[in-house]
Amino acid sequence: MSENRRVVVTGLGAITPLGNNVKDTWEGLKNGKNGIAPITRFDTEGFKAKLGAEVKGFDPKEYMEVNSTLRTDRYAQLAAGAADQAVADGGIEGKVEPERFAVLFGTGIGGIGTFEAEHTKLLERGPRRVSALFVPMMIGNMASGLIAMRHDCRGPAMPAVTACASGSNAIGEAMRLIRHGYADAVISGGAEAAIVPSAIAGFVNMSALSTSEDPEAASLPFDRRRGGFVIGEGAVALILEEYEHAKARGAKIYGEVAGYGSTCDAFHITSPHPEARGGARAMEDAMKEASFSTQDVVYINAHGTGTPMNDAVETIAIKKALGEEQAKRAFVSSTKSMTGHMLGAAGAMEALACLFALQEGILPPTINLKEQDEKCDLNCIPNTAIREDITLALSNSLGFGGHNACLAFRKIQYLSHWRRS
After folding, report:
1. CB 51 within 8 A of CB 34
2. pLDDT, tens only, 397-413
3. Domain 7-248, CATH among 3.40.630.30, 3.40.47.10, 3.40.1830.10, 2.120.10.30
4. Among 151, 273, 303, 403, the one annotated catalytic
5. Residue 210 has pLDDT above 70, yes or no
6. 403 catalytic residue (yes or no)
7. Is 273 a catalytic residue?
8. Which fold has domain 259-412?
9. Which of 151, 273, 341, 403 is catalytic?
């Protein structure tokens, strides 16, 4: 099969802490909107971490029949909503053969809300009260399966489950499905709905979450005051499509998925390798595939969680991948300062940010960056978005288990010039 098929993004959908559609989400990102606030989904009395980046005002009945909402976990509902938006935005329905239409959708944890609710029933009311739908609502492949059923995608339909790298791995592997001839279009992205007591307790007890009660001083990527990430939720979906297929049907194109790197540190279950060996190589692989040149004007949407180790190690990765001089010239920001860490949806959210940064020449900021750490000595776009005509956007995702993913995006005009070697 051909290895020279180009892959472009022709549709987007978003349900995020910044808004329940793409327009509001992007407006929030470029205007430095903070989506972090006190958690409302449960009573946080007794919890050290009390803040989250929740989706506000989402009603699954806008996308699904009432009976379907009762048979799906919140993470799958968010995924279905974002996918519906992306399909409508891309005008892809009926324009691709079902057997050539695939789904690859990421989630880090899947239906943990369902797991928690049904386990509580088991303990309090006995095994007969556990729902017959417990397992299908909980499992991590159900968002992909649900999206495939809703849009008649009869090609591969799979999840990517690589913790915080899930969304980026889903998009990268979807790109490869198209590039190597196994599909003409893929609904990809990521979804997460893990703002539940058990997840908050688990994350905070491993010292991963910020315990600040001030939303303006909680998610602090690259800041010396940082003390952990703020958990977020939501879903972002992208329609990936083979370029000639998209061109033939007159589709609008947001940009090209020009490169992808996927590696593992093979080092520790939660900590990144101190020399950033896996993260740097993922970036190098994505940049090579995207024909990186030292003449490129680069924007990096960093993983940037706001944990003490991650941000310092990612800085090392960026310097190794680009070289010291190019790293100093690159523009870097962490949109998790606004969205919190959306876990399995984070990579898809940040892919959206990269695509609009390329298209509009507006680079979203790292908000609340007031005391930049000397270990994170890059141009981290503090507090306010900037205008810059970039040529290459990179999105980093670094997950528990040592999973690293980097996506590289190009402007559409580069399609006529770029040639794979």
Report:
1. no
2. 999 999 999 999 999 86
3. 3.40.47.10
4. 303
5. yes
6. no
7. no
8. Peroxisomal Thiolase; Chain A, domain 1 (3.40.47)
9. 341
